[in-house]
Description:
Layout: E1 6-9, E2 18-22, E3 28-31, E4 35-40, E5 49-54, E6 59-64, E7 67-71, E8 80-83, E9 89-101, E10 104-111, E11 117-124, E12 128-136, E13 142-148, E14 155-159, E15 181-186, E16 194-200, E17 204-208, E18 214-218, E19 225-230, E20 236-242, H1 246-257, H2 267-271, E21 274-276, H3 278-281, H4 287-299, E22 306-309, H5 330-339, E23 343-349, E24 351-353, H6 357-364, E25 370-371, E26 381-383, E27 386-390, H7 396-413, E28 417-421, E29 429-430, H8 439-448, H9 464-469, H10 482-496, H11 519-529, E30 536-537, E31 543-546, E32 551-554, H12 557-587, E33 592-593, H13 595-598, E34 612-614, E35 618-620, E36 629-641, E37 647-658, E38 666-669, H14 675-682, E39 690-695, E40 700-701, E41 707-715, E42 721-729, E43 735-739, E44 743-747, E45 752-760, E46 768-780, E47 783-795, E48 806-810, E49 818-822, E50 825-830, E51 843-851, E52 854-866, E53 872-878, E54 890-895, E55 900-904, E56 914-918, E57 925-932, E58 935-941, E59 947-954, E60 962-969, E61 980-990
Parallel strand pairs: 21-22, 21-30, 22-23, 23-28, 40-47
Antiparallel strand pairs: 1-9, 2-3, 3-4, 4-5, 5-6, 6-7, 8-9, 8-13, 9-10, 10-11, 11-12, 12-20, 13-19, 14-16, 15-18, 16-17, 17-20, 18-19, 24-27, 25-29, 26-27, 31-32, 33-34, 34-35, 35-38, 36-37, 36-38, 39-41, 41-45, 42-44, 42-46, 43-45, 46-47, 48-51, 49-50, 50-61, 51-60, 52-57, 52-61, 53-54, ...
Amino acid sequence: MLMAPVTGSSAAATASARPATSITGGPEVAHTEHAVTVSVPASAGAPGYTLDVATDELALTTRRAGKTVLATASGDTGALRFTAADGTWQHATGVTDWTWKNGVLTVTADSTLDGATVEARITPRADRYQLDWDVHGGGPKHLGLAYDLSSAGHWYGHGEAETPQGGPGVNQPWPLDTGEVDHKTFGPASYNMIDPFWYTSRSTGLRVDTGDVMDVALNKGGDGLGTFTVASPDTYKATVFVESTPLEVYRDYVAIVGKPAKSDATYEQYAKPLWNSWAQFYTKVDQEKLLDYATDLHDNGLDGHTIQLDDKWESNYGNLTWDPKTFPDPKGLSKKIHDMGFDFGIWVTLWINLDSVNYQYAVDHGYLLMDAKDTTKPCEVTWWNGRAGIIDLANPEAKAWYEGNLKKLMDTYDIDGLKFDTRFFDEKCAPREGHQATDYQKLGTQLADEFDLQGAGIRVHWNRTAHEAGFVTRQVDKGTGWDSLRASATQNLAISTIGYPFVESDMIGGSGGQPAPSKNVLVRWAQSASLMPLMYASTSPVDTNDTTTGQKVDYDQETVDLYRQAIETHEKLAPYIWDQVRSTLKTGDPIMRPLFFDFPKDEASYTVTDEWMLGPAVLAAPKLSSGATRSVHLPPGTWYDVNQGTVIRGPKALKGYAAPLGVTPAFVDLKAKGAAKAIKALKRDDAPAASVLITPDAPSTDAGKPFEVTTEVTNWGTGTLRNTRGALDLPEGWTAKATGPTTATSLKNGATLTTTWTVTPADDTRWGSHDLTGTATYNGYNGSQKVSDTVQARVKAAPGSVREPYLTTDTTTSGDAQYAQAGDQFAIWAGGQDLSGWRDEKGVIYRDDAAGEKATVQAQLVSQDSASPVGKAGVAFANDLTAPEKGGYAVLAMTQSYGLEFMTDSDGDGKLDTWAGGGSTYHPAYLKLTRDGATYTAYASKDGDTWSQVGTARVPSATGTGDAGMVASAANVNYPGENIEAVFSGFSVTS
């Protein structure tokens, strides 16, 4: 029925509450002294909610069943916030008027900026409300929402997150609020796989409807806030979902943006790996190397559907012609790869380098995107291979020309498919007349859909076409360490739950230009990928090349065998996975998903970072870190352990579950659809029945000081184990005394032999980490067996002093740096805002006047520990390290999370103003600086034998004999009060 509008004003805020006015069966609106409240009743499929709009200072609080499930920020942050013309942050304040008309609550508020008011329009629906708002007056530049993260529990979604800890390459917090997200260029043209959608553990969600770039931050600097800022003064449009479960929030979102209409990948592409050349060779690839690579894979039974040649096959980027020097016979190459049973594919891009033959042709014919600032000239963009123009897919003639070149290339050389790389648009460019930046995601999707993408998929997002196309989604390049492996798992959960369900990790073993993955990382990554929808491979388990050193890396036969086993497991699981693909085409639900999508009432599931559901039946719990055991969380249900053949009733925590290198923990929900097919694929009979777990997992002590550890030997098998014995393997000179039994004549299914040990390090133990290995021997149905688990026991340095000829100096603001020396070992504890051009704050141990005009300073950085990801420790030269402004200043440091930094002072003012470095952080790190007059060169090594040059620089102010030393800075500008601990050994200065 029709209702008269309800209105209010600032005067009404002081009056008594008036009765609610409602539309029968729909929302009701009531006004109290401090709030306007919208009440939406529960209905079929929706739980109902209330939205309180605070009137003293505009803020929004959403409640379900009386409990807060989402609330905007308060105080100086502001809920509805904007930047003024001068860039300062402003926000809405007291409500001055409100109306309820035709199902829309319109609220007007003052703001902290004189002359600017905020108008918000809230449209409630059964399971969501639309929030549209504007700023009138004041010349706003950006509009944003801010939320108190804790009000909604935990936060998820977003996609590939840029983080201070190295995300998305080596870090992806899960949940998002447990880490930090600082994503300043979050937009439709981004290379990252992202969508403006977030959901929470309290079953609320936020979608921002925009085609503009956003600045998104969650818990930045640990502030507990979520800020979602759009770089536009136009109407801010958002949808807030309120549901009973996170899965229902996801389904609401997918109903808006679309679900896959098809799967771009075939059954075979789900069943077998794609082998891509990138991480194996990077750009140092040629015809002979690629054939050797394919032959090794083929001869070692490492199955796959395609060999895909990545970057650096072209004569020049954008020419789409072969480099005759490195690929003299591409037709013959294609034939030989096909003869081995593989398809053949190549890497392509729409970016044409300025020195390419095709560039001028494209310019002359108007085929390139134009510059956003000067639309009379082509847009030029910088990428990892130089400077380029981008083909304008909105120009039908340009698209036809590019497609024609691709199809001619494929026909001529029997190429079966393509890997499209780089973006289809850049913010520096102007969209073609009649188009918007967001259209290029759609245009790129349509182009790619004409070709076989061979399971490499394509990185398009942000629009309905991308969601409906059903492409496989590959991740951004990852590093090659354990952190990147863990990020590959949580990132797939993030991507698949923003509406892109056909996910795969980055290339198994990583592809980010870091040192080759270790055997354990490579095998564990393959095992993890075997329990994902698709497997995307590159690094060969036979041998590979370390791109940082140029050295060949050979893996052993076990690496090959275990990698092959992972491939075979995935192939066996393919019928079950294909069932999930077909189900997703009907429902839009993700295949790889967090446990709480299936078990929303299981609170523990909301913070599990290293397990996932693969469809409704398979719980994957691969080992994503070093060691031979892991803890497993099983939600409510009846679970079949595919390795041990036992049935376990959840919820249950499996502590110290056996996961030696050859075992991939996985469990099947016996009551779920597809359980029988999953068990048939995953069941094995050769896994060890027992495990041994050492706790704590990182004990620490002082040299000569006793500490306690516990070993727990657990029987996970179906039968009884005989003559079980636990023991400890210790570093030389250490002792251990057991408290309690170390043997068990019989150990029944589920039983544990627990032993506490008092361990005493030798008095002269060096600082740093030392292996402590627990072992268990037993007689089982497969005869006598032995299992083990290793932790690193850390012997700590303690502050003290250094001995002559070493000196110390402290340039930190707090001035409380501490130092220690034990033989050739040194330690520094220091604060400091930064060690860079803008701040030079550090603790230093140095040798005075020890470095001549030709000198080398070298040390092993054993370890460093700082709260800040940019905490730094390394070696340095200067004319006078107590006064860098006297010239000759250079530092080579390892950061906590971002690899190496080589910094020098180019003009003698004592400020570090040149930089080189990057890569991954590793320890121990061997660091070396050489000086030849005014030329400084930095080197780094993992082993002290094979060195890589970090950079070289001129430091004209370097004169005469100077100081050399070790430095450490907490770089704590964003982590006030935090210190760094850096441990060095083997420091030397030669001159």
